[in-house]
Design goal:
Layout (H helix, E strand, L loop, with lengths): L2 H37 L6 H14 L1 H22 L2 H7 L4 H25 L1 H16 L19 E9 L4 E9 L8 E12 L5 E14 L16 E14 L22 H31 L1 H31 L23 H7 L2 H67 L6 H25 L5 H4 L2 H18 L7 H19 L1
Antiparallel strand pairs: 1-2, 2-3, 3-4, 4-5
Helix pairs in contact: 1-2, 1-3, 1-5, 2-6, 3-5, 3-10, 3-11, 5-10, 7-10, 10-11, 10-13, 11-13
Length: about 525
């Protein structure tokens, strides 16, 4: 290895490691900000939180690597340009591409390693992370009650609150339905305000209610079971303070079975994604074929079906009539020669074409109304069948697209490392600014642009606006030409970011405009 190659690798490696951990820390803080409501106040042991942070950090590695490569490449080449080391290297006859070649090989190696990491490690970390988050969310029920939504997590109870003060934990406009008797809403408690807290042993939940009343419908006597003689007995009780104790069972921090989540598309590698996608496509094809057969036989060709049934009915009536005549003749002419009446053959009765409109208008109003009502019933049933089948088919198609998105994500995140290198390295050589100032600002802007395009492309792919292979690679398709353009400009010593160049251009343009006007 040449001394120049060792120099560039040494200059690049330290910023890469530092920026990687900084990027990972920033992304991890974003995760904590997202799930802070689910983690805070749950009484979790530090080992559980540390385990969750470990798995989440491992999950964020493919996202942190492109940002680290972008930032470190801008810092490295910016420092070299700011110290005129790039100028000295170019003056020695070494081109920028030749100088960048060790870093290009290193970036390609990082891309390959990132791909295998995404294929083998990320599904495992996703499984562990999602299982832990699910267990954490189900540990403390008093923190899961949302405003304006009935909470049914406590057995035999349904609770609803209108407002919740997160600073004082004060609950307002509380409704509690008691379903212990397996009946409808016959026992309800309503209060103006209250507090909810867990006991020290975390086995019971105490709900303290203020200024309310409880209403309970009592059972009717057998003598009052008739509608006219019912008395509707009930009991109403006002209170200033009341405590309801809920016995909690199954709310301890227990580890869920990971097999419940392992078939999710984010927990699969490439081979498993291909197998699951083939299975889903086969299921979708079978569902679509069965739907076509069902809708064709029950809706589109219902008239033909009715005609066939009517012909079979007439055929059976003719057979029965001929057999009955034959028995009568045999009985009356027992001593005479028997008269044999040939039965009709088993060939289907030919369909005689007729005009349904003319038959309909010949009927009376009662038959017309009955026919219209029956047709409306058939049409509504067909519409409901089509709507339900459409929802099921769309869900299956969306699930297939989700698998395809995850398949392309493993390649797209790996390729993003190469894209960001070809943006950062020439950009640093052009701006010639090192440190954490300008490079950080530029890196954040490029990463935000990449993230917005990537999220938009993924959303378009989920909603079938564009195929998954376009939606997931959209950000790379847009930013890769920019990297090639910047590499070309850096190789030719372009001054595209020099303000004096643009000021001189506008001055010349202004002078030319003045000469034409004179």
């Amino acid at each position: 290895m040449k001394r120049l190659h060792k120099f560039i690798l040494k200059s690049y490696f330290s910023p890469l490691v530092a920026t990687f951990f900084v990027s990972l820390f920033i992304l991890l803080m974003q995760f904590l900000w997202k799930y802070i409501d689910d983690l805070a106040g749950k009484g979790l042991e530090w080992t559980v939180v540390a385990e969750l942070m470990l798995y989440m950090s491992a999950q964020l590695v493919p996202m942190a690597l492109p940002l680290a490569i972008l930032l470190s490449s801008i810092m490295t080449f910016g420092n070299l340009g700011e110290n005129f080391e790039l100028t000295a290297i170019k003056s020695a006859g070494v081109s920028l591409q030749r100088f960048m070649s060790p870093l290009i090989y290193l970036t390609v190696l990082i891309c390959v390693a990132t791909f295998f990491y995404s294929d083998y490690v990320i599904p495992y970390t996703n499984l562990k992370t999602n299982t832990l988050i699910y267990d954490v969310k189900n540990q403390r029920p008093e923190l899961q009650i949302k405003e304006g939504v009935f909470y049914n997590g406590i057995e035999n109870y349904s609770i609803k609150i209108a407002e919740k003060d997160y600073k004082t934990n004060l609950l307002k406009n509380i409704m509690v339905y008691d379903h212990h008797d397996n009946q409808e809403n016959v026992n309800v408690t309503i209060a103006d305000s209250g507090y909810m807290k867990m006991t020290a042993d975390e086995k019971n939940l105490i709900l303290t209610l203020y200024n309310g009343y409880s209403y309970e419908e009592l059972k009717e006597n057998k003598s009052g079971s008739r509608k006219n003689s019912r008395t509707y007995p009930h009991r109403r009780q006002n209170f200033e303070k009341q405590e309801i104790i809920f016995e909690l069972t199954g709310f301890d921090f227990n580890r869920s079975d990971e097999n419940l989540f392992k078939n999710h598309f984010r927990m699969l590698n490439l081979e498993q994604l291909n197998y699951a996608e083939d299975s889903l496509e086969l299921q979708l094809e079978n569902q679509a074929r069965n739907f076509r057969k069902t809708i064709a036989s029950s809706s589109y060709f219902k008239k033909e079906d009715i005609l066939i049934k009517d012909q079979e009915r007439k055929k059976k009536q003719i057979k029965k009539k001929n057999i009955r005549k034959q028995k009568i003749i045999d009985r009356n002419n027992a001593d005479s020669t028997k008269i044999i009446i040939t039965k009709p053959d088993d060939s289907p009765i030919s369909e005689v074409p007729y005009n349904t409109d003319s038959i309909f208008y010949k009927q009376d109003n009662k038959i017309k109304e009955s026919a219209i009502n029956q047709a409306l019933t058939f049409a509504r049933a067909a519409k409901n069948n089509i709507t339900n089948s459409k929802i099921q088919l769309n869900r299956k198609a969306e699930l297939i697209r989700r698998h395809q998105i995850e398949w392309h994500r493993k390649f797209a995140l790996s390729f993003a490392c190469l894209v960001f290198f070809f943006i950062g390295a020439p950009f640093g050589a052009i701006i010639r600014k090192g440190g954490f100032g300008t490079p950080v600002v530029i890196s954040v802007l490029f990463f935000i642009l990449y993230y917005i395009i990537s999220i938009s492309g993924e959303k378009f792919a989920r909603e079938a606006v564009m195929p998954p292979y376009i939606g997931m690679w959209l950000s790379s398709f847009i930013l890769m030409p920019l990297g090639i353009f910047l590499t070309y400009k850096a190789t030719t010593d372009s001054v595209i970011l020099n303000t004096d160049t643009y000021l001189l251009f506008f001055k010349k343009l202004f002078k030319r405009f003045l000469k034409k006007s004179e």
